[in-house]
Amino acid sequence: MPRHIYDEDHEAVRASARAFVARTLAPRAQEMIEIKSIPREVWKEAGKQGLFGFDIPEQFGGAGVDDYRFNAVVSEEMSRFNAATSSCFGIHSDVCPPYIVDLGTEEQKQRWLPGMASGDLICAIAMTEPSGGSDLAALKTTAVRAGEGWVLNGSKTFITNGYQADLVIVAARTDPARGAKGITLFLVERGMPGFANGRKLDKVGMPESDTAELFFDNVRVPDENRLGPEGGGFVAMMQRLPQERVGAAVSNVAHAKAILEETIDYAKERKAFGQPIGAFQHNKFLLAELVTKIEVAEAFVDDCVLAHAARKLSAVDAAKAKWWSSQVQNEVLDHCVQLHGGYGFMNEYRVARAWRDARVTKIWAGSNEIMKELIGRDLGL
Fold first, then answer.
1. What predicted TM-score, i.e. pTM, was given to this entire model?
2. Strands, DSSP E only, in the chain?
């Protein structure tokens, strides 16, 4: 089915993103796997090409474009390259900027947004804790008032961009008696005494992503680094999670679609018993099913992108897009591995790496079980 949500301006940005992938990312693909991160010069080149900062106003170095579809086309092209780059860039350029743009003071915006847009400053957001997972209201990291600032203690884990991050948006409990209303956001900078970017975690997939632990040991954070009102952190996160989840859905579909296209080509070329494997009725019917699943998922996600661009996407619909797209992605990629036979289990084949990379998408940005819980509550159950 033809897609109708993008116009010439969006496709021009897509072309730029695709050229960046071919020129800058593809030649360094193996290097990024080996060093388990995206080199800083790659971040800076992406910023130079205008791939960051669509949500950042022009006076702070961004594009100042109030149209989420530009974010989405870049996410699609990064995802077609690999899931990890899309994740790292997405956290930095889609998830983090709205917090500072919407909640930050003028001084905070001037201080950090230009570097985020240029790629000179890498940003992360630290919600998840070792004991908490998707239960954000139960976080244990604390921030206690001390004079004109705060003292931060605790730890975070599974933080995308955590190892290289220069700036981290940290959720901490400032009033234990108030539950979810006692959570506040802080901007923690690399080099603050007591703040440690932990080791790169050894993950099953997405090796290019420098996922890390973060540790806060009596970190003194000035009050000017508080982001938004005291006690407003949980609400701020809930209000902005739909953008993270629709972004995940965009990435899920684009990633699976690219590998499926490669698998169809493989099925036309690979022969068994004297004919292309795609000519066998089982495989032909299977590929027909997979193409249909991807296109149907893409149509729903496209509608969610349009709704979000118009500021009408509900948290429930974002949850539907996140869980369904990750489920479809994993189903499709599992079949793609099977269609490749033994080669599908070889790291040199992209399908194998994509299959591993996709598994986490049913866990992060809120597990699929949490997504179904949100949808179920909306049904009055």
1. 0.96
2. 123-126, 142-146, 149-159, 167-173, 183-189, 195-200, 212-222, 226-227, 271-272, 275-276
